[in-house]
Structures are given as C-alpha cells and as structure tokens.
What we know:
The complex is a heterotetramer, with 2 copies of chain A and 2 copies of chain C. Chain A is of the alpha+beta class.
Amino acid sequence: MAFPAPSDTPYATGTGAVFQITSTPLAVRRALREVLDHSIMSGLSKDARGTAELVLAEALNNIVEHAYGTDDGQIELQLHQTGSRLSCDVFDAGMPMPEGELPAGLAQIIGEHDDLPEGGFGWYLIRTLTEDLTYRRIDARNHLSFKLNIEQ
Amino acid sequence: MAFPAPSDTPYATGTGAVFQITSTPLAVRRALREVLDHSIMSGLSKDARGTAELVLAEALNNIVEHAYGTDDGQIELQLHQTGSRLSCDVFDAGMPMPEGELPAGLAQIIGEHDDLPEGGFGWYLIRTLTEDLTYRRIDARNHLSFKLNIEQ
Amino acid sequence: MDLATETQDDLLIVRAMEDRIDAAGAIQFKEQMRSICQNPQSRVMLDLSRVAFLDSSGLGAVVAVMKLLGPGRRLELAALTPTVAKVFRLTRMDTVFTIHDSVPNGFPSAV
Amino acid sequence: MDLATETQDDLLIVRAMEDRIDAAGAIQFKEQMRSICQNPQSRVMLDLSRVAFLDSSGLGAVVAVMKLLGPGRRLELAALTPTVAKVFRLTRMDTVFTIHDSVPNGFPSAV
Ligand SMILES: Nc1ncnc2c1ncn2[C@@H]1O[C@H](COP(=O)(O)OP(=O)(O)O)[C@@H](O)[C@H]1O
Ligand SMILES: Nc1ncnc2c1ncn2[C@@H]1O[C@H](COP(=O)(O)OP(=O)(O)O)[C@@H](O)[C@H]1O
C-alpha cells in the first residue's frame, strides 16, 4: 500500500504516530488498545480517552464493514497532536462512500419496542464528537480526516 | 470592525463574495435573500440552494441569538466557491461559544406531546449538513468555518 | 405573517401565505396561530404549500403550535415544499406530525 | 463474552464480565444473552459495571437483546461506566432503557 507517508502531512510541530491495521473487527480492537497505550494519548483525561476510543472505533469499524466488507484490506491511521487538538487521518483502499460524500449521520428514530434502531449510530457519533471532519476520495483511496478536542 | 479581509483567506482560485450583516433576525433574512440572489449561488441545484440557505440561517441566527444576544453587533460572511465545495466563513465579535468549542448538536429527544422539543435543532442541522466544520476564537472574535457540497 | 383559514366541518385549514417561517417571523406566526386555534374544530391542518423556507426557529414554532392545541387536538401538516420537508426529515419531526401530500379538495389551489 | 448470572425472585441479573462490548464481540454477546434470556424471570437487568467501552455495534446488540425479550419483558441496565453512559446519552437511548446506578444488594461487588 502507498498511503501518503506521515511526513507528507502538513504538520510543523507536535508529536505523531502511525498504525497499520488489518481490516477485521479483532484487528481493530487490538489496534485501539495499542493506540490508547501509546505515549501520544498519555496526556489525555479519562473522558477524552473514552471519546477518542469511541470515535476511532466507529471510523475504523465502518471501514471494516462498509469500505472493505468481505474483502481483505489494509487501514492506516495517522495521529498527530498539536496543542489542544488530536488530528486523526484514516486511509483505506476500499469502496468509496455512498455518493462520494460523508454520510449524513442522522439521529435515529427512537420508536416503540419493535421499532428501536439497532444500527446507524456510527456517523451520528462521529459528526457529534469531532471537528474539521473531511472526506476525500483520491487515487482510489479513502481519506477520512478529523480532529478531537483533547483539552479539559 | 477588523475581520480578516477576504484577500487574507488562503484561496488561490474560484469566486468569492463578502456580506456584512447587522445582528438582527430581519437583517439575517435580508442578507440570506441577497446571498441566494448572488451570482456565486447561480450554479447550485434547487436542493443545494435550500441546504445552503438552511445552514447559513442556522449559523447566522445562532450568532444573533447567542453570541450577541441583546447587544448590537456586526457579522461578516465570506463565501468562496472552489470546485464542488462552497466554503463559508462567518466572523463575529460576540460572546465565545460555551466552553470555547462547537456545541455537540445532539439529536433532540422526541418525547410525547408536552415534551416535544421546540429548540436545540440548530447545531444538529449544521453538523449534519456540513463538512470541515471548525470553530476558532481569535482576538476576541468568533470564526466559524464550514464547507457545503454543492455538486449534484 | 399572513394566514388564511377555511373550515370543512370538523377540520380547520390554515394556509401560511408568506414564503418563509424563520427566526424573524416565528414568534408572530405562533401568536397568530394561537388566536386562530381558538376555533373549535378538533382537527387543525397547516397548509405549507407557499412556504419555501423554514428554519429551526420556524420548526420550533410549529411544534409550539402543536402543543398549545392541547392533548385532545393534533396539528396536521400538508403540502410541504422540498426544503421544508427536508428540515422535518433531518430532525425526525416528520415522525411526530401527520403529514399530507396536499390539502383536501375545496381549498383553492396555492399556485 | 463471559456472562455471569444471578436470580433474585422475579429478577434475572446478568453481569458482563468482559471490559468491552464492541464490533468484534457484539454478535456473540447477543447470542449468549438470547440463551440466558430463556430463563423465565420477567425482569432482566444487565450489569455493565465491568464494561469500560461499548461502541455503536455494542449498543445495537443491547437494543437487539431488549427486543428479543419480547413485549412483556423489559431489559434494565445497571452501573454504567462513564464512556458507556456517554454512548447511551449521545444517542438518546438512555430514554429507552431503565438505567440503575447500581445492581440491587446481593450481587457480589464488581470491584
Ligand atoms: N467507511 C465507509 N465506506 C463506505 N460506506 C460507508 C462507510 N461508513 C459508512 N458507510 C455507509 O453509511 C451508512 C451509515 O453508517 P453508520 O452511521 O456507521 O451506520 P451502520 O454502520 O450501523 O449502518 C452505512 O450503512 C453505509 O452504507
Ligand atoms: N454562536 C453562538 N455563540 C455562543 N453560543 C452559542 C452559539 N450558538 C449556539 N450557542 C449555544 O449552543 C446551544 C445550542 O444551540 P442550537 O443547537 O442552535 O439550539 P438553540 O439555538 O435552539 O438553543 C445554544 O442554546 C447556546 O447555548
């Protein structure tokens, strides 16, 4: 795979980390443990860590489920911290997003018992918890980018 | 007011427009008519025009209501089109956002009759309909920035 | 805010005559609906065929009108234009109101 | 997915013993809950005190368990850790479940 090297990303200062992840739910679980244990996350509050794990889980699992589906695939996660923001860049070579753009992430309709939603929460959570959320399809690759506020 | 001049914004190509808006609901309504009638919006589909009007109305009315409240104030809206994206930059000199960051824009709880929500939809709509949503407080000014996909 | 009314037996039809229900007009809309809804009809239908634009304040006002009808009466909506329908759909408030494609026969056409 | 159960009269308490209910474990969790819920108790309470992390797949599985209990029985939740509580709050699913701060006396403490 030839994802842009982290050195290509336009960050002048701060610390960074790169993770290579195979496209399976178990590999995502292992990668999240590695990410959360990495020194780049050590300054975060418990709450910010929980939010970061949640957003990264949603982004990565969406790729496993929807971009690669039953295909094997590779995911690259680049993290970069500058000041109060953790920048996250996720690359994959799977299917593009529907209609080539970010899913709307609508609130789910909370109906009665049998009509309760069992899915469709992923993009709502990502939109709600991130800043600077961007999706680009370039050279048959998906690039999802967002920032997390890690202040407090 | 000394909002950054549109020439300071880092756009190399495309077309732009700048609007000065007084902080009242009627001025926002008039400004939206002007924006929608501007040549920068002429290439948009009916659907994209509706979405643009909605997102701009929510962003501007939030400033009138929450950033300036009962104070007089000035708002500057900068629009810039590049390819399939309409970049929107909104500046005001009112109160900062709560906790200095973008409101979460949670889905409203749709309860029974008397508990139905009458407000709180604004940031949910902005988050759902935009890309690259960013908020920065700089030099006692608010800068809200987002992009609209105007393709289709 | 200009509102036109018509009654059909137990149905009160209210047509919004302005092309927008927005932050600048939401309170006035709500107050005028309040007095119109003194009428005794048990069904109230709001004809939105002329309303091209409604923002979150307008949505809030429509919800407020639904509430002030009280528990025994419901607000129904008719003839939503595309952008207005989108606001109801995105916020899921389309699950709260009975929404009709058009008003029942008898009311003069909006266009 | 390790699940421990205890009954208190008409109440079945199920404690998730893993520290996460995520995309990799959601289906297994649901299947094990399905067989545990063959028990006849009318109240089922899921003790989440040991679960530090739950993603949207885990949330979906909890909702699915609620549904497979059928209309006469409800799933209650207890002892949510902060990040798990946040997922329920953000998605508004905290309005769907009865959520208890802790499990009733009797169940050995999780910590
Ligand atoms: N990474 C992705 N690549 C392609 N399609 C995606 C991706 N993520 C999401 N989608 C599409 O967007 C929809 C909504 O995703 P999401 O909100 O995560 O809910 P869910 O995954 O539970 O369906 C998915 O059903 C899928 O069609
Ligand atoms: N431009 C702003 N400046 C300061 N605070 C804001 C601004 N916009 C929103 N807020 C805060 O965020 C909250 C949520 O806003 P919103 O979703 O638009 O709902 P509503 O305006 O109906 O309350 C507001 O109640 C307010 O406290």
